[in-house]
Specification:
Elements (H helix, E strand, L loop, with lengths): L15 E6 L2 H18 L4 E3 L12 H8 L1 E8 L7 H16 L3 E7 L3 H5 L3 H13 L4 H15 L4 E3 L4 H16 L14 H11 L8 E6 L6 H12 L5 E5 L2 H4 L5 H13 L10 H12 L4 E8 L2 H8 L10 E6 L2 H6 L7 E3 L5 H13 L9 H11 L3 H11 L4 H13 L3 H12 L3 H14 L4 H10 L4 H10 L4 E3 L2 E3 L2 H13 L10 E2 L2 H10 L8 E12 L14 E9 L6 E2 L5 E3 L8 E2 L8 E3 L20 E3 L20 E3 L21 E3 L21 E3 L20 E3 L21 E3 L30 E3 L22 E3 L19 E3 L18 E3 L18 E3 L4 H5 L20 E6 L8 E2 L4 E6 L1 H4 L2 E12 L3 E11 L2 E12 L4 E8 H4 L11 E9 L7 E12 L6 H4 L11 E3 L20 H4 L23 H7 L6 E5 L8 E3 L3 E6 L1 H6 E11 L5 E11 L2 E2 L3 E8 L3 E7 L1 H5 ...
Parallel strand pairs: 1-2, 1-3, 3-4, 4-5, 6-9, 6-10, 7-8, 8-9, 13-14, 14-15, 15-17, 16-18, 17-19, 19-20, 20-21, 21-22, 22-23, 23-24, 24-25, 25-26, 26-27, 27-28, 28-29, 29-30, 30-31, 39-40, 50-51
Antiparallel strand pairs: 11-12, 31-37, 32-39, 33-38, 34-37, 34-39, 35-36, 35-38, 41-48, 42-50, 43-49, 44-48, 44-50, 45-46, 45-47, 45-49
Length: about 1300
């Protein structure tokens, strides 16, 4: 992260320290002259305009510029000041600059009373009266002068009536010198990635609140730019406070005995400029800060705090400071903020830079001033990947690589792969050094072994080592060393590298003397050479493919402290037993050749994984392992019977899944008091689940997926603590025992695909114990999909499912279902492909989603289904025959504005006519904040079809002022039939936050694109949009004036009565096919409205399309030679013809452009303009960078991204011809295209298709590259394109 030294962004440098405003004849030769001389004598740059050069009654543009570029304005109010219109205009400009910028204004009342100026009185009253008579027709102008006099006269300044002018001037000079001492901080060399964050912080600071004292915390990992951001926000706001102080490096500066005292003295002297303080102890310093600052509005920034006592000494509580004060703390440890009582809403996590900002910052450090050296994009990408957005790394590496050639770059990257950069590492290691010993152990284990692994798994492993894992992981998260992301523990690559380097530093030359081993060569050297020592605590080696290696039977003998051993895909060529130390806590060795042996004595093993081994019965050999909790024996083909669990009384989890010969579950599980999870899934020979004669309070999860169990025992109800049970795809059960209703704690029950299940039981009273509670009071999810049930009468007893949230009944044979109205908590209902279902009864109020896709007999739905957010009725033709349409979900007259997100999918080919047809797939508008407040939501509709049965999905694209975001949307099925999708989103859910600054309107973008994979052919035929808004009433002319760029036809006013038309009548144009509405010439493309003074070029859909393409799909390298594989094109247009069959074979187009630049370095930009039979399609625009020599740009493009309607498939049925012409025009600005070539990658062509190609001469055969089939597309395309440094991996 970087910023300029003057503010959060690069503001213009101030030209003068002081601007003097005065009435010449009154003060020029005496007071003013002496004041100017005194200021100049002490080195204060002062502007004093020459009144003789003043022309006319209005100040010049040059003078206005001087005012706005000055730091302080001193206004000398003398007797005749107000008589000068020039002075008054100057004063108005000064006060406007004070309001809008950071200009400090000080009045000098020279032989006039301040009340004369404010009121006005005496000479000022006479002067204003003359002005009113003279400018009678321009009273507004006179009013501005009066307001300026009042505001300036009310400011605190200096008043001189009589006495020594010399002393008075000296006092003014001292005060100005003090004020100029409050200067902006030097922030960073390059201002990248700062402004938006400063705006976010300004919102958190809430400077409009004058009474509250806020403490705001910035936290993040080392080197991420916390200090830079703190300096930038300081520069942006410090002049709004009476005093300010920036205490840098608190952690470092407080280490020495007098360090904290020095920090206290510095804080006081900075806030109270011009005063010096001597503090004798920390306690006295704290009291002094409270006494001297409790009535002052101050800005205090405490940078790099790492201990609570530091905050206690410098800013213990808010009462130490006056109203309106703001205290900002930066730290690596979030817990510091929590323990200090900082409100969570006032905490701001400083994260790494995004890709574009990281690239910009790196370029500035690596290439600025060294334009003659060209480095390949691939090398730059490798450095960016290494830095992973960390500003410190980008700066250090960029500076170190600056001016170096490609060979030096490669050498540097090779060095970094072995050992991290010391300067970066030292900064990152500070966070590690502050950890407790146990937390350091946890961190090193995660860094060396477990980055990216499941959080629950990691906690199990580390808990087995007797670490305080929960608090330890929380400490690491709070110190920004790790992150918990979607259930996995992640860390920055450089922090991981730092952790690994700490372990390597234990002994650089001998891996056997390190605490942890994870590198292939290190592990094998130690295990094969028998050179392990008691320094080794953990070994983890996970190979991609199985490898046979010799491991000595005594390889682990000397590793007495080994607590963790994980070997995956390592097959030992030695078949004898391996001897392991008793200290071992966690042992994973799938494919292990034999059962390991331990020494006599107590064992500490907690976790055991011997999956995919030929073990027949292992647990009895671990009888003396009193701490064993987790056992995994997956895919053990020799395991026939579950072992007796009585020999492992502490066992909590047992996984025997995919043991293809397992036939029996041991009866001992019924009596086990600790077992919580049992997985017997995918054991096809397992036919029986044991009886549970007594209540079992331990077992919580049972997985029996795809077993041969014929029935569950009636005693299953004794698993009283069971929470999850899965019997998916068990094809033998025909009915379940009614005792299943005794599972009072069951949360999830799944019998998906139990095709022989003819009935789900009804609840029955337990005759043996009438007081036993029956039902599923805790059940949240029930899945009976694919069971072919003829009826679901059991659902009529609603009291059995009081909290059910998700119910899956798809692929069943019932003709009707009971009303779901009393399933009050039901949120999701799936009844897709129930082909005999005729009616859906009333649904509960909380239902959010219903999927009835493929219910071909469905003819009636309840009226309250229109209140459900997501409804999928794909391939339900009877509903459409009965008159149902998507408009029924969007009746805008009926308080529609109260709805949140809504969407519905129905068969059909027409959009509602109230939507505004759109051929581009997006809307873009510039509006003021007042108009935006009127917006309620956005409606989107499109008609689509998939040529092949499959799934269809799309992505929403939204942006505000160029800040883009994407929302992957719903996936639904399509059956080679036209369907209509209609969706609505509240504007506050699409564009989150307040994007309106003081400078006027904002630019909004909303669109969508198809996400079709290579095997499906989704076609978009029509689309339309509408902005739903509150009534504009009489404000419409004001709101829709020159202040914004918006097509008024896009607005639909809910409840607007005047000349309101019905939805079916209102339409600005007929709804035509999307493809038909696209023009055949470029001149007739989408029209661009021009908004005066607002540049919207940066928000073009063409640039957005290109920015969405994976950057790995392109490569730019120096040189003007085109690789020989490409087919050269004579002009700037690529063209070929293709039939439906041939187009379906295409996987991608590889574009190669050789371009040159003349007359110095220039930014090269491009437009890629595709056509199908003359119809323009998805134009792409962007820039590969700035260049001053010939370069070769290679770009991989997916066909549908170019030629498909809204990036869907090409609709050949739209055209009369069997063969369509596909073309691609490439335009380059800033450079000259010297060569243009291309290749077409495709799946292998059948012989008959090759014959057609040859006969019809559809395309140049040399352009086709049949390198791969669809199944191994990723692998083959990478192999084929690697030489061009293009690595397709799907679209990001």
């Amino acid at each position: 992260m970087a910023s300029s030294s003057s503010s959060s962004s690069s503001k213009p440098r101030k030209s003068y320290d002081v601007f003097l405003s005065f009435r010449g004849p009154d003060v020029r030769n005496y007071f003013l002259g002496h004041l100017y001389t005194a200021l100049d004598w002490v080195g204060i740059s002062t502007y004093k305009d020459d009144e003789e050069l003043r022309k006319g009654e209005r100040i010049s543009t040059e003078l206005m510029k001087v005012i706005w570029e000055s730091r302080i304005a001193v206004v000398v109010f003398s007797k005749n000041y107000a008589s000068s219109t020039w002075c008054l205009e100057e004063l108005v400009e000064i006060m406007e600059c004070k309001e809008q910028r950071d200009l400090k204004v000080f009045p000098v009342f020279y032989k006039v009373d301040p009340r004369e100026v404010r009121t006005p009185r005496e000479s000022y009253l006479e002067a204003m009266a003359k002005h009113e008579r003279k400018f009678g027709k321009d009273l507004e102008r006179v009013g501005r002068w009066k307001n300026a006099l009042f505001e300036a006269g009310s400011l605190s300044g200096w008043h001189f009536t009589d006495g020594s002018e010399a002393d008075f001037i000296q006092h003014i000079v001292e005060e100005i010198s003090t004020q100029l001492g409050r200067v902006p901080l030097d922030v960073a060399k390059y201002p990248v990635g700062i402004d938006f964050r400063v705006q976010q912080l300004r919102t958190i600071l809430n400077l409009q609140s004058k009474d509250d004292v806020f403490v705001v915390g910035l936290w993040g990992q080392g080197g991420v730019g916390k200090t830079t951001l703190a300096k930038a926000i300081y520069n942006a706001v410090f002049r709004e406070f009476q005093g300010s102080s920036f205490s840098e490096r608190v952690r470092e500066n407080s280490k020495s005995p007098s360090g904290m005292v020095a920090l206290q003295e510095k804080l006081l002297s900075e806030v109270l400029l011009g005063k010096t303080f001597t503090v004798h102890s920390v306690a006295r310093g704290s009291r002094l800060i409270e006494d001297r600052l409790h009535n002052k509005k101050v800005l205090i920034i405490l940078d790099d705090v790492d201990a609570a006592w530091q905050l206690d000494a410098l800013a213990r509580n808010c009462q130490w400071f006056g109203n309106g004060s703001r205290i900002i703390i930066t730290t690596r440890d979030k817990h510091i903020l929590v323990s200090h009582g900082v409100n969570r809403d006032h905490m701001y996590e400083v994260e790494a830079l995004g890709n574009s900002a990281a690239l910009e910052l790196f370029r500035k450090h690596a290439f600025q001033g060294n334009q003659e050296i060209e480095i390949s994009t691939n090398l730059v990408d490798r450095v960016l990947h290494y830095a992973s957005g960390l500003p410190l790394a980008l700066e250090v590496l960029g500076s170190s690589l600056r001016g170096r050639g490609e060979n030096e770059w490669k050498s540097t990257l090779q060095t970094l792969a072995k050992s991290p950069n010391k300067k970066i590492n030292d900064v990152l290691k500070v966070s590690y050094d502050g950890l407790e010993h146990y937390a350091k152990e946890i961190f090193l284990d995660i860094a060396c072994f477990f980055k990216g692994r499941d959080t629950k798994y990691i906690k199990k492993v580390l808990d087995s080592c007797d670490f305080d894992t929960i608090i330890g992981i929380n400490n690491l998260i709070e110190r920004c060393l790790i992150k918990d992301e979607r259930g996995t523990l992640q860390m920055h690559d450089l922090i991981q590298s730092m952790g690994m380097d700490i372990v390597k530093e234990e002994c650089r030359d001998d891996p056997g003397k390190r605490s942890r081993l994870w590198l292939y060569d290190d592990v094998l050297d130690v295990l094969q050479g028998d050179v392990g020592t008691d320094s080794i605590k953990a070994i983890v080696l996970k190979l991609q493919e199985p490898e046979v290696k010799y491991i000595s039977p005594s390889a682990f003998t000397n590793m007495r402290k080994l607590r963790l051993l994980i070997l995956h895909n390592v097959e030992n060529s030695f078949s004898g037993p391996i001897h392991l130390p008793n200290e071992l806590r966690w042992f994973e060795w799938p494919r292990c050749a034999s059962i390991p042996e331990f020494r006599d004595g107590s064992k500490k093993l907690v976790g055991l994984d011997l999956s995919n081994t030929y073990i027949t019965g292992v647990l009895k050999q671990f009888k003396c392992f009193g701490k064993l909790k987790f056992v995994k024996l997956k895919m053990c083909p020799s395991l026939v019977c579950m072992p007796d669990l009585s020999c492992t009384p502490t066992l909590e989890e047992l996984d025997l899944s995919r043991c293809k010969n397992l036939e029996r579950a041991h009866e001992s599980l019924a009596y086990h008091g600790k077992l919580r999870k049992l997985d017997l899934g995918w054991c096809p020979k397992l036919q029986r689940f044991p009886d549970i004669p007594n209540k079992n309070k331990s077992l919580r999860e049972v997985y029996l997926t795809q077993t041969s169990i014929e029935e569950l025992p009636t005693s299953i109800g004794n698993l009283v603590s069971l929470e999850r049970m899965r019997l998916d795809y068990c094809e033998k059960p025909t009915i379940l025992p009614s005792s299943i209703y005794r599972l009072q704690n069951l949360l999830n029950l799944s019998l998906h695909g139990c095709s022989k299940l003819i009935k789900f039981p009804k609840v029955e009273e337990d005759s043996s114990d009438p007081h036993t509670k029956m039902g599923f009071p805790m059940l949240l999810e029930l899945d009976l999909g694919g069971c072919h049930l003829p009826e679901v009468e059991f659902l009529e007893n609603f009291s059995c499912f009081p909290h059910l949230k998700s119910l899956i009944l798809s692929w069943n044979n019932f003709t009707n279902v009971p009303t779901f109205e009393k399933l009050y908590y039901l949120e999701h209902l799936y009844i897709a492909h129930c082909k005999q279902l005729q009616e859906i009864p009333k649904v509960p109020e909380k239902l959010r989603g219903l999927d009835a896709t493929g219910c071909k007999s469905l003819s009636r739905i309840p009226s309250n289904l229109f209140d459900v957010e997501d409804v999928e009725l794909c391939s339900c033709p009877e509903l459409v025959h009965n008159g149902l349409s998507v408009t029924d979900w969007f009746k805008l007259e009926e308080k529609f504005y109260g709805k949140t997100h809504r969407c519905v999918v129905l068969p059909g080919g027409e959009m509602p006519k109230w939507l505004l047809p759109n051929k581009e797939g997006y809307i873009s508008f510039v509006v003021s904040k007042d108009l935006y407040k009127k917006f309620l939501g956005v409606a989107l509709c499109f008609v689509f079809r998939a040529e092949r049965e499959g799934f269809f999905s799309f992505t929403l694209n939204v942006s505000v002022n160029g800040k883009q975001d994407e929302y992957p949307h719903v996936v639904f099925e399509s059956f080679n039939l036209d369907h209509v999708y209609l969706g609505y989103w509240k504007t506050k859910d699409l564009w989150i936050g307040d994007y309106f600054g003081p400078n006027g309107p904002s630019h909004f973008h909303f669109g969508f694109r198809v996400d079709g994979d290579l095997s499906s052919k989704p076609i978009v035929k029509k689309c339309g949009f509408r902005l739903i808004c509150k009534p504009l009433e009489n404000d419409s002319e004001v709101l829709l004036q020159d202040g914004q760029l918006l097509d008024p036809a896009l607005l639909y006013e809910v409840g607007y009565e005047d000349s309101q038309m019905s939805l079916e009548e209102e339409s600005s144009s007929e709804t035509g096919d999307l493809q038909d509405s696209q023009t055949s010439t470029e001149e007739d493309g989408s029209s661009e409205l021009v908004y005066k003074g607002f540049d919207i070029a940066d928000f073009s859909i063409e640039k957005h399309r290109y920015s969405s393409i994976n950057p790995r799909y392109r490569n730019v390298r120096p040189g003007g030679e085109m690789p020989k594989e490409f087919v050269l094109v004579g002009d700037s247009t690529i063209s070929f013809m293709a039939s439906q069959d041939l187009y379906d074979k295409l996987l991608g187009l590889v574009l190669c452009v050789v371009f040159g630049v003349e007359d110095g370095r220039k930014e090269v930009s491009f437009d890629i303009v595709p056509h199908v039979n003359g119809q323009r399609r998805n134009v792409l625009a962007g820039t590969p960078g700035s260049f001053d020599s010939d370069h070769t740009w290679i770009q991989y493009l997916i066909p549908n991204v170019l030629w498909g309607a809204l990036e869907g498939a090409v609709d050949f049925a739209q055209f009369e011809e069997s063969y369509l012409r596909f073309s691609l025009a490439v335009r380059v600005s800033g450079g000259t295209v010297k060569k243009l070539g291309y290749l077409l990658s495709c799946r292998r062509l059948e012989d008959d298709l090759k014959v057609v190609l040859e006969d019809k001469q559809l395309m140049d055969p040399a352009s086709l590259c049949e390198e791969f089939d669809l199944e191994d597309f990723d692998w083959a395309s990478s192999k084929y394109l690697r030489k061009f440094h293009i690595f397709p991996r799907g679209r990001d």
